[in-house]
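Lab notebook page, bench 4
Experiment: in silico fold of construct C2
Operator: M.H.
Input chain length: 129 residues
Purpose: comparison with the prior construct
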Amino acid sequence: MLLKSEILAIAAKLKHGAEVLKLHQELLDLGVTSYYYSVTEGTHQYYNDAKDLVEEKSDCGGLFVVRIASREAAEQAVLKYRNYAYDFPTFCRALASSGVYEYVADLAKGKIAYIDQTGNEIFVEALKS
């Protein structure tokens, strides 16, 4: 069973996208195997193999996502977030303006899929240690 307090404590430590690999390892150590983030709602959902759910609402909800997705703009948003140029709220706004509706992290496979409003993958980020 996933403990919300432990997951939220780990998530609270993330200050910049460059720290995401450490965050992912700590989540894996707790038994989290994947998580989902809704750009429009500002909600994280964390799952384990048993599909237990822990949900967290961020301060970034209520964003309008453009209908035409841009792979280049989404990749640039991720790159800037990973390189300390964006904080999380700025990252979310950049994703919304690039057409990213949600992203799904598969921690076991080490990847994050950025998805548009129609459910198509805009691109998949391979996480490297």
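Observations: The first strand starts at residue 34 and ends at 38. The two ends are 27 Å apart (CA to CA).
Next step: discuss at group meeting.
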